[in-house]
From TrEMBL:
Mg(2+) binds at residues 7, 34, 147, 149, 247-248. The keyword Ligase applies. The active site is at 106, 147 (proton donor/acceptor), 248 (proton acceptor). Residues 382-518 form the ATP-dependent DNA ligase family profile domain. One of its GO terms (molecular function) is DNA ligase (ATP) activity. The record marks 248 as: Interaction with DNA substrate. The record marks 218 as: Important for catalytic activity. It comes from Mucilaginibacter corticis. Keywords: DNA-binding, DNA-directed DNA polymerase, Exonuclease, Hydrolase, Ligase, Magnesium, Manganese, Metal-binding, Multifunctional enzyme, Nuclease, Nucleotidyltransferase, Transferase. It is an enzyme of class 6 (ligase). This is DNA ligase (ATP). Transmembrane segments: none annotated. It catalyses: ATP + (deoxyribonucleotide)n-3'-hydroxyl + 5'-phospho-(deoxyribonucleotide)m = (deoxyribonucleotide)n+m + AMP + diphosphate.
Length: 938
């Protein structure tokens, strides 16, 4: 027998979803909550047509509960005993059916805490507990089923720290639930899943379902008479992903037949599905020639280990990453920089003897006598051959004419084990289905470099840094560019230290300190031979560093002189920390890296584990199916001409992938802008536009176009304009959806409107503060945004937040086109000055990047003529196809991420929230009154 509970969140609005699920799942008994329909409006006929009888008690605006059954059903109660006059919502109904007494309940939500609704929740719970005490020891089977609006334990939420002040997770609420269970009830789901995160609810906001940021709110409590019949339990999670569905998913339990007893059949969740026959896997893989070259998939560095289900773990080897192209009689090892490794001939010879055609991914290491990888020994292996050479293979990308990169990792692992012969020189790297935190602690005790965590169902994305492969380092290591060396007065060494740096995204080399240990005389002599051809007079760093700069760790100058080198050599270092001014401390040289392109060496910062894991767990990341964006374009055609607002627009190359890692096409982009136009056009209308064009997608070259003279179709409006350089231009002026889609057809992934309109070009409609982080975590951006709000609240000024869609946040203040850009900029400067005074440790007002010392820029200078930033609801040319999304201030909390709002979920969010930014186009503040108030406040 199958019993289910489902908070339907509006039965008539979601009746198609309910009926579809009932046909699919066929439960014997169903408890429904939040009918949000009067008793007379219950859809009895539709329910009965599926073979269910029902009892129900409606509530027009909010609650209401019902029980459906495939057998005769008799109502026993339609409320709890006792009265409470403060709130009168319908929350409990009790029936007898299938020889079971079943109570269907909806416990009050109780938010906000503290408050009268929370007090009422506890009173209602007391009434529930009193009634339950009389049911628990009945001779009849009894169950109390429904939405308890309680998370009993940390396992019942994805992020316990986020809910400390939420009524669903308050200690008083959790204790009330535990007191109820202590009467003798069995929590069915927790009994069968004692150590697993099982969620039944996902908020509509911020793509909670996509991130699996869920809660367990729906519970089954069984009395001893029926608990012994418990067989299985689960959540039909997929229903939460249906269109126009509830924020809850149906949860269910399965019981043995009456009179029978059954041991639960639920096993702990397995990482891997049942193993498939390798020949079947290979048959399903697409045919493809052996790739001429392939760059390896890269892992994202995160800050700590974790224990989420669905991940496997490997040792992080300290060696050279190598792709092996294997053919009968020959093999080639290739570095991640597409250079051949010709020094490891034993590995090549062994691979060539295998008589297979394959492309493998692995790591070449040199093992010491303890079995640990020694990078220094690997570097010198050609000369010494003193260490044991091993090629650890952890992936197979191509085999015998078949492309395997589109198969899940666990299936690739099965193929790998089946096709590579056993060898002491070449080994399949073991993977472990274990507790990640314990595995990491073991790695540290074994003095290993770290561990790699991989989604068991991850696909192989070549030359991409994936968030489905994560590395957790036990030691802090960093590849750096050698851009010079120093020599202290009186030393007899070849050099005293290396001057090292890393590149930023603009390919500018930044100095990050010196490395003065880790090399002996022989190594220094070999390195000097590499340095001499590269000596140059000019420092290659963006700012010539003071290589003798004193510090608290070395206050005395040693008379060191710098010799600069062309930045063509890379080495690896180990270090203790990075100081506040961006320098490495206690750095030690670990070896040269001739397998790395210097321009690819950037400072690797640790991402937040919880955030990255949540993103990696999105369902769309673990499947080969592309999530199609529905819309107005024919999916069968690659080129179309469509009339929009009377304007014929041409849409070409629709299948071209603009976001290749996410398989998001131009067609998807056009369909998104068509769907979002109703929300977006009010913020574009009558504004000149700056066109930022990406004709070949986010990784191709881009350029700005402002002048559309003789280029825009006649149906587009234009504005003659002379810029501050005296140049005559004609700007596109957006007027409607056609304007938006024409810009998109040019490859404008992001949309950049002016702050002012053509009718008042010198008077912006809003003032903008752009929070532009450098190395800060996004939670610090959130903190800065909240300080801006505090300052604005003190002045009585409304401020509207939105994500930038990239790394920062944009904060808008309505001006109503009553003031000049100069006045707007001055106003923004006053605000950010007060903000900077409160959080000076990580914010800066310096315009020049080099003067900010890595701090977050509080940008007030955006408030000037011709300036633009990514507009409201604009897509961004970033992996994941993120969207610049307006927020309510309740959402501006730690844990918010850019990936919460993407091309996939933004339209459904807007249907739920509406336009949160309307106030930006409102009347505007009174600057004179505001500044007068500011003088009295600050």
């Amino acid at each position: 027998m199958k019993i289910a509970t489902y908070n339907i969140n509006g039965i008539n609005n979601r009746l198609p979803v309910l009926l579809r699920w009932l046909k699919e799942a066929r439960p014997d008994i169903v408890c429904l909550q939040e009918l949000k329909a009067e008793t007379s409006a219950f859809p009895k006929a539709a329910i009965e047509a599926l073979g269910y009888q029902a009892i129900w008690l409606g509530q027009r605006s909010w609650n209401g509960v019902a029980i459906l059954s495939t057998a005769d059903i008799r109502e026993l109660r339609n409320d709890l005993p006792g009265k409470d006059e403060e709130f009168t919502h319908s929350r409990y109904i009790e029936a007898f059916t299938h020889n079971i007494v079943i109570g269907c309940l909806y416990l009050p939500n109780g938010n906000p805490w503290p408050g009268p609704k929370f007090d009422y929740k506890l009173r209602w719970f007391e009434r529930m507990a009193e009634h339950a005490q009389g049911l628990v020891n009945r001779d009849l089977p009894v169950m109390l089923v429904g939405d308890y609006n309680v998370m009993p334990a940390d396992l019942d939420t994805y992020k316990p720290e986020k809910y400390v002040n939420n009524a669903l997770f308050r200690p008083e609420t959790k204790q009330a639930y535990q007191n109820l269970v202590a009467q003798g009830w069995t929590d069915a789901i927790r009994t069968l899943y004692p150590n697993e995160r099982v969620y039944t609810f996902w908020d509509y906001l911020r793509d909670a379902f996509g991130r699996n940021a869920g809660l367990r709110l729906d519970h089954f409590l069984l009395n001893p008479k029926i608990a012994e019949r418990l067989v299985d339990a689960g959540v039909d999670k997929h229903v939460r992903g249906w269109e126009k569905t509830s924020d809850h998913a149906p949860a269910w339990i399965e019981l043995a037949d009456e009179g029978g007893k059954a041991k639960p059949k639920r096993n702990p969740t397995a990482v891997n599905p049942a193993k498939k026959d390798v020949t079947v896997l290979l048959k399903a893989a697409p045919k493809k020639k052996m790739p001429a070259s392939i760059k390896p998939m890269k892992a994202t560095l995160v800050d700590e280990a974790f224990d989420d289900a669905g991940w496997i773990y490997e040792v992080k080897w300290d060696g050279y990453r190598a792709i092996a192209k294997v053919e009968p009689g020959q093999a080639e090892l290739i570095s991640r920089n597409n250079l051949p490794f010709d020094q490891f001939t034993p590995v090549n010879h062994q691979l060539g003897k295998w008589n297979i055609n394959a492309v493998l991914d692995g790591e070449i290491v040199a093992l010491n006598d303890k079995g640990n990888a020694n990078f220094g020994a690997l570097q010198n292996w050609r000369n010494t051959k003193s260490a044991k050479l091993v090629y650890y293979v952890f992936d197979i990308l191509w085999y015998d004419g078949k492309d395997l990169t589109g198969l899940p990792l666990n299936e690739r692992k099965e193929i790998l084990k089946a096709v590579i012969p056993a060898s002491e020189l070449i080994k399949a790297s073991e993977f472990f289905e274990v507790n990640g935190t314990e595995f990491f602690e073991t790695a540290k005790k074994m003095n290993l470099e770290g561990v790699i965590a991989k989604k068991a169902d991850s696909l192989y994305t070549a030359d991409a840094r994936s968030r489905e492969w994560l590395k957790i380092k036990a030691k802090r290591r960093q590849e750096v560019v050698i851009a010079g060396f120093t020599k202290n007065e009186g030393t007899g060494k070849y050099f005293s230290a290396l001057a090292i740096g890393v590149y930023d995204q603009n390919e500018t080399l930044h100095y990050i300190g010196k490395v003065g240990s880790g090399f002996n005389d022989r190594m220094q002599k070999e390195m000097m031979a590499q340095f001499k051809p590269l000596i140059t007079k000019d420092s290659p760093f963006d700012v010539e560093p003071d290589v003798e700069e004193p510090s608290q760790f070395r206050p005395r100058r040693l008379g060191a002189k710098a010799t600069w080198l062309k930045p063509e050599l890379v080495c690896e270092i180990e270090f203790a920390e990075i100081t506040g001014d961006g320098k490495v401390r206690q750095a030690s040289f670990k070896g040269m890296r001739n397998d790395k392109n210097p321009k690819a060496v950037i400072l690797e910062t640790e991402a937040d584990t919880a955030e990255v894991v949540a993103e990696a767990d999105e369902p769309t990341k673990s499947t080969t199916m592309k999530k199609e964006i529905p819309g107005f374009l024919d999916p069968a055609k690659d080129s179309q001409t469509v009339k929009v607002d009377g304007c014929p627009l041409i849409f070409n190359h629709l299948s071209k992938e603009y976001w290749p890692e996410d398989h998001i096409t131009k067609r998807d982009m056009f369909n998104y802008y068509d769907a979002v136009a109703a929300y977006m056009v009010p913020y574009l209308k009558d504004r000149p536009m700056s066109l930022n064009r990406f004709p070949n997608g986010i990784h191709g070259p881009s350029f700005y176009q402002k002048n559309v003279k003789d280029k825009a179709p006649d149906c587009m409006q234009k504005m003659p304009h002379t810029n501050d350089k005296g140049e005559q231009k004609e700007y596109l002026v957006a007027t409607n959806k056609a304007s938006l889609l024409w810009m998109a057809s040019l490859g404008c992934i992001e949309i950049n409107p002016w702050f002012s309109r053509v009718g008042s070009p010198d008077h912006p409609d809003f003032c903008v503060i752009d929070l532009d982080p450098d190395n800060q975590h996004f939670d610090q951006v959130i903190e800065a945004a909240l300080v801006v709000k505090q300052v604005c609240d003190a002045m009585g000024v409304p401020v509207y937040p939105k994500t930038s869609g990239s790394t920062g946040m944009h904060l808008y203040i309505p001006l109503g086109a009553k003031y000049t850009y100069e006045q707007s900029q001055l106003f923004a400067k006053i605000i950010v000055t007060h903000v900077h005074e409160q959080i000076p440790d990580y914010t800066s007002l310096e315009r020049m990047v080099k003067n900010r010392a890595g701090k977050m820029y509080l940008d007030f200078l955006q408030n000037r003529p011709d300036a633009t930033i990514a507009g409201v609801y604009s897509l961004r040319p970033k992996p994941g196809a993120t969207v610049s999304m307006p927020l309510s201030w309740d959402e501006v909390k730690p844990g918010l991420t850019m990936r919460d709002f993407t091309i996939h979920n933004s339209i459904s969010r807007l249907k739920e929230t509406g336009d949160l930014f309307k106030g930006v186009l409102g009347e505007g503040v009174d600057l004179a009154a505001t500044l007068k108030k500011a003088q009295s406040v600050f």
